[in-house]
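REQUEST ID: PR-0412
SUBMITTED BY: lab tech R.K.
PRIORITY: routine
TASK: structure prediction, single protein chain
INPUT:
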Amino acid sequence: MQEVIQQFSETIRKAAAEHTHVRIRGSGAKDFYGLALIGDVLDTRPCSGILEYEPTELVLTASAGTPLREVEAALAKNAQMLPFEPPHFGAAATLGGSVACGFSGPRRAASGSTRDFVLGVRMFNGLGEDLHFGGKVMKNVAGYDLSRLMTGSFGTLGLITEVSLKVLPVPGQELTLRLEMDEAAALDSMNLWAGKPLPLSASCHVNGALYLRLSGAGSAVEAARRKIGGERVADGTTFWQSIREQTHPFFAGTAALWRLSIKPTTAPLGLGPQLIEWNGGLRWFSANISPSLAFETAQRAGGYATLFRGGDKRLGIQRLPANLLAIHKKLKRVFDPEGILSPGRIHADF
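STATUS: complete
OUTPUT:
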């Protein structure tokens, strides 16, 4: 493993010296996202394996190239899980790629995002320097912000080689309910129930039906079921898997897929065929919407829009406000002064 780590450092140092571009890549399961894929591929998969895992401490440390399914299998043996339910989007998805992309699944509104569970990272910056941020315990403050800064950076700030994550026990019981209702009623219901002491772990509205997942102790789940009503979905696990991995029929169309992250209480937007998650905070639109309309709509709703898949990706990523862009550029200069890591990967301003 040390030879692999050394090779990573040498590759980055050489690129920095020669001013060539490096594209950090695991399995490539999420290559569809973002802008141009530029540079020579640096494959993280040779850096693989679970390094430390103590179930009683609820902390796992693994190399970035470790298959995500391997991590989840090890946790499942101890009735534990990654609480943010990271989507794989491919059988060979890696842990490092999931953290670098920062995508979270259906449980995000209830448990938190990927960033919330990152305790520490080991990484190489754009100069090939081996850096450590954060730690491997839950009560950690050293390098707190910098370790989480890597989450969602898409390899533009550095190459993650190790990640330490907080994990959680699998709920004692789970069930999924289905209620027939229109979008407006579903939004009202999701926001109402999200504010109640109910074991709500996921929500989704699609095709005129609201789906709610209840997770927790058996007595709490049963009490919530009686309060909410609706019909029980026979295979709720498969349904939520289809939402997480975007294999649900809603995602099968040929139209562009827009992702709007907005205030959960926002009224119906009327932009086209839609699937709602996160108690109304995440809205997917399968429609060829003009970028200006998507951006303006999301901004009015207190959020942002991204062309997630399909369409002209050059037009589908919202420009950052000037003050926020200045911070991003400063971080980029600090971590990657030669600008060799994944240039253009997220937006055209780097």
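NOTES: DSSP finds ten helices and 17 strands in the chain.
REVIEWED BY: pending
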